[in-house]
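3.2 Worked example (two chains)
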Amino acid sequence: MEQFKYDFIEFLLNTGALKVFEDPKDDRTLKSKRISPWFVNIGDFNEGNSTNALAGFYADAIINSGTPVDVLYGIPDKGVGLAAPIAMAMAQKGHNVKWVFSRKDEKKHGEASHLAPEERIKALMVGGIPKSDDAIVQLDDVFTAGDAKYEARNFLKGLNRTNLPLLAIAVDRQEVAIDSREAIAEYQERTGTRVISIVNAVDVYHVLKDKQSVSPRALERLANYIRVYGTKDARLSIGNSLEQKIIDRERSVIPACDVETLAQFEELVKQTADVPGIGGYKVGFELGLGFGLPAVVAAARKYTDKPLIYDHQKAGTDIPDTGKNFAAVMKRSGIDTVILFPQAGPETERAWIYHALDQGLNVIVGGRMTHPAYAVSEGGFITDEGALDMYRIAARAGVNNFVVPGNKPEVIKKVKEIVEQEGVSPVFYAPGFVAQGGKIDAAAKVAGDRFHGIVGRGIYKAPDMRQAALEHTSQL
């Protein structure tokens, strides 16, 4: 990493413009509506000293890019105030270039009177008017969806100024867009203009880690945020896979505890807790809403410390913001692991995964279900590809635990291929046995070495729950 990047991050920290929060109560809501544990406010630099310093860092980034520069163009609105200071900073470093920005309204008097078409540009711009072949570097503070950048580019091209080799911003958060696009990569591909930043999210993470500038908890929160919302390069740079190991065994049976009373649940746990092949317990809304999750957790902890997995049937189908509250409730209740079926879309999925990780919870994500007429190919509502995207996005966020339908081996095979393509070695959890016709041994064969069968009525409705648990675990 170039020295100016280290210096810029220190500058951001010293001025208070960069904040990385340890406490979720301090998090900031971004323009994208994402709730972020880190934030950079370039708008804090609004007086001489800090603006001068900021301009110097921009100049270093532009010069170090190796791109020839004739003119600096400030994209409205934030870029307008950057153009002249950065030109001055570049001059101090031996690179004398012009600066320019566009007028809000076309000038129609003085030098702009009676202009020929080529000279009309003078009525539209303030500063050093670029020649038709000048290399123009565009300036802005951040890059989100890129709308203002495309608009600025179209404006310049409309004036026959097409030599646009570079766009410079201060901080690249390296996030995917809400629709999963990598906005900067797409901009570069569509326009041929290279985008550079003084620093990016990964630079910030590594400097904070090396210098121990923030607490371990704050750094962990930043890493999880990048894993969930980051571009592919960002995720890989900090280590993509979380490799959460929920069950100690490679294969097990997990009772689905869809019983009617707390006493029945306690008896189920009591009879099966010491069966070696029982990996944990899946608790649903019947127990959670009927008796309260803290009471359910307390009942189980009398007999076992095996994982308690909460399945809200189906969590992750609300707006993104509610994921924060859901995760906080799970943590307070003593739940270890949550199952999400994020049918509300990619942004909800990312938010619920992030907030669960932020609370220290294990995450299992599902996309396909056991019953008929779920996916479009089966006569249902959810497209087959959309369901696979739920797995794909989770894998990209580092999740390695997935729910698959145990009675549909062909779906398990496809999901396995999808997540392995994202560099994740999956652990599968599968319902759909006994009453729904699936066979544990058949599903386990397709799933691979790490597989956990979820069995409900086949255990809790058996005359002898312990014996039923032993029989089901013997099939592994």
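3.2.1 Second chain
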Amino acid sequence: MVLKVGDVQVTQAEFESGVGQIEPQADPDKEGSAGDKDKDRRKLGDDYASVLMLSQQAVASHLDTTPEVRRQLAIDRVQILSDAEFASLMSKAQPTYEEIERYYSAHPSDFEEVRIRRLFIWKTGGGSKNTHGLSAQEARARADAILQAAAAGQDTTKLTDAFKDSDDGLFDGQPLSFPRGELPPKIEKVAFAIKEGAWSQVEETADSIILVQLVKRDRQQLGEVSSLIEKQVQGDKMQAMLNDLKKKTGIWMDQEYFGTEVAPVPGAQRRTSNPPSQLQKSARKGESDNEHETQK
């Protein structure tokens, strides 16, 4: 026993377990002296003792029987039980290595990656905000020379290397690897569509012309993405279990009060003006986790 409040005795294990639910834990990266740690523990002990004292007084004053407190206690109970069941379901939804392998084999395009070179040719004049670069005509001519040489199967090294350490543009001297989803949409669309070795234009604006070369198209190894697949498969299994539970439980909602269900837009982010309540977090946890991993 390390603490006593009235007739309630608290062991060290009970204190260390209970205080974590009330006070945030200290930052382990911040080292303090033994005296500082003693002061922190004493402060936590005083706070915990006060919580126990006030809760005992509330029961003695029969506040636990008032409508508002009973309502709050009921909500807390629902939340705690909901979180416990959710944790249990998540454990059951943990995928096996075989399931992760099957998902990887069934979704080959999801784990494609490309090794590319990007060339940004800066333009000046004609509404450009650049202070250095080429005229629009010269930039166009340099870009066309690279594209035409590549299309003819010629070596473009001299044409592209001219932009190294130059104020006229920015060039990836060494190829860079990008899995799906990590490139800007316009560059990704081109990079994953062209043939290996080819150069293609991504876009042209008043400020620049962007070209990209696909050096190699590859696929990420299972070991590189197994943790991502694990979360995806677990989320899918969790969602399936939640849907099955909803059917078995028999959930009914008054459409006149709640409104009709709106079909989700694929890839759309849900937006709310206010943060979700604890009840919403519990009810939607499975859906939101799965939706987040899918969008990834």
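3.3 Remarks
Confidence is low (pLDDT under 50) at residues 266-296.
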